[in-house]
């Protein structure tokens, strides 16, 4: 199986790169899969809604109001999605900085996932911007708003996408058979990784820092000056849970694309990751308890929002933490997957609690996303999966890279 | 030391940049005692709720003419929106009916301006906080950040603007009074420098302590605002945001932003250190094998 890419490269030698690319654009595999049947109409509907949004304004498709200016698109797609994309910086840290070779086989797929996540979430951001044609202003200096957290986040999104593209580029070079370019790009990996980790630290926490000025608007159980630190720590287990979840899905869907060696390594990888998840979840829970005690909000625990807070902390932080620990000790892969799914649900709940549910929780007219906002969110998610699948079926992502298997 | 043409221009450029950034950083601290912002003092004991200011505002800024049947009614709160930058509300209080005008507070250190990543929201030297459509990308972070919820967004326009009171910046710049102040028949609105207005407000409270509640809303709130309020009753009764903090809102993100340069210097150094440490270690391991 590992020489699919090799034959592609060989066939490429005779023809031009463009003709090769044109050939690769053709769909591979069956068209009428259950996923395609469900996602295609949703994507079409989403595209129609996006056209309406640009023709008639954001208010024509969303339930946003003057009191609640950010809804599902920012709270879920951008803030939550970026947390899930955190796997890329954690895994590159482990492989390139800590030199943990065990995890090398999942670097490419994780970086690809992270890169696509950023591209698509930045795309959602464009939908949410009222005046998207001005999006270039903070870059070209039509106002460097250096005192703005958003300024930092915007620059970091852009630079981090570049760093991830460089980290992933050797796979692209291999695919089109550009060996020399591949070597040069591989040489840039370490710099891109170090830059990428630094950027991630700052913008993962920066997404939380965006909400620091909304002091009276966010429910006190979720507002504290430590939001940035909590967002950063939770991005570690959010990203790794995503890696575990996505890895087991890929294993099922792209079974014949994964080399034998990587299949064998899979269980070892996810037990290692489960340990990291357990420890970071513990740190996170500890920080949350500290923040809670400092906030002196004991009286709020008896309110409905307080129960909801306890649900989040016990059901979606403490419980998966225990599951990860137990699963690691028993080497139980399916328990790890369950823990990963609960953790991911917990991260979604946490991010929505800060950005949407807890934001203006006391408002007379609370915000609920419209069905059109949900369809657009699904559109973004499904299109990302389509592109991901397209790339995995063509580029050396899940299998060993060709050059390395040739050398060995 | 000799310097060639190119070197000279480079030095000039760097000097220009540092002067430029110095100016930006300098503008951030509104505590500068030299800065004399203009503001408006609203005395609710004088306001009769005629809504003349609402009409004057709509006329001045080309907004739809207010509906004459839409009058203030106690119990319902009228809010500013994308079609009206200033509204009058009435409250049944312990001192009877009290009218209150609502509009952008023109903070000394506005949360919206520090939130804006393109500096489309800006605290002008005169005092008004203005919005620049050529820069704004419509992210609505100003709306998230403003403790008074004053920036409003045109949700139903493909080319939406952020709408809020700009204290008639153009008129103030020309030396004229803001439209609402000029058209107030009850003399409830007074235009002047913040310093003069606070002195005037204190004078009124001292002259008639029975009439006024002893507090100037906006003197300390959110680090001081351009709009100042006098009221016969505590401001809670007029549903003012009394949870608002006295420190300026941009301070809430300052700690985070100050940590950014240190992380940018420390992280790569630490990561490179770890990289080298683990690489050596691995080299030894391979030798042992």
Task: Give a verbal description of the structure.
The complex is a heterodimer of chains A (408) and B (289). Chain A is mostly helical and 408 residues long. Chain A has one domain: Formate dehydrogenase/DMSO reductase domain (Formate dehydrogenase/DMSO reductase fold), CATH 1.20.1630.10. Chain A contains 16 helices and no strands. In chain A, helix 5 (87-97) packs across helix 11 (227-253) and helix 11 (227-253) runs antiparallel to helix 12. The model of chain A is unreliable at 1-12 and 403-408 (pLDDT under 50). Chain B is α+β, with helices and mostly antiparallel strands. Chain B is 36% helix and 13% strand. Chain B has helices spanning 5-28, 52-60, 111-115, 141-145, 169-173, 179-182, 194-207, 251-288; strands at residues 38-43, 87-93, 96-102, 121-123, 129-131, 152-153, 162-163, 189-193, 227-230. Chain B has a three-stranded mixed beta sheet with strand order 8-1-9. Chain B has a two-stranded antiparallel sheet with strand order 2-3. In chain B, strands 4-5 form a two-stranded antiparallel ribbon. The longest helix of chain B has 38 residues, at 251-288. Chain B is globular. The model of chain B is unreliable at 6-30 (pLDDT under 50). At the A-B interface, helix 3, helix 5, helix 8 and helix 10 of A face helix 1, helix 3, helix 4, strand 6 and helix 8 of B.
- How would you characterize the largest beta sheet of chain A? none
How many structural units, i.e. domains of chain A?
A: 1
Please give the order of strands in the largest beta sheet of chain B: 8-1-9
Could you name the CATH class of the domain at 33-108 and 166-251 in chain B?
Alpha Beta
Shape of chain A: globular
Tally the helices of chain B: what do you get? 8
- Structural class designation of chain A: mainly alpha
**CATH architecture level-2 label of chain A:** Up-down Bundle
- Outline the low-pLDDT stretches of chain A: 1-12, 403-408
List unreliable stretches of 5+ residues of chain B: 6-30
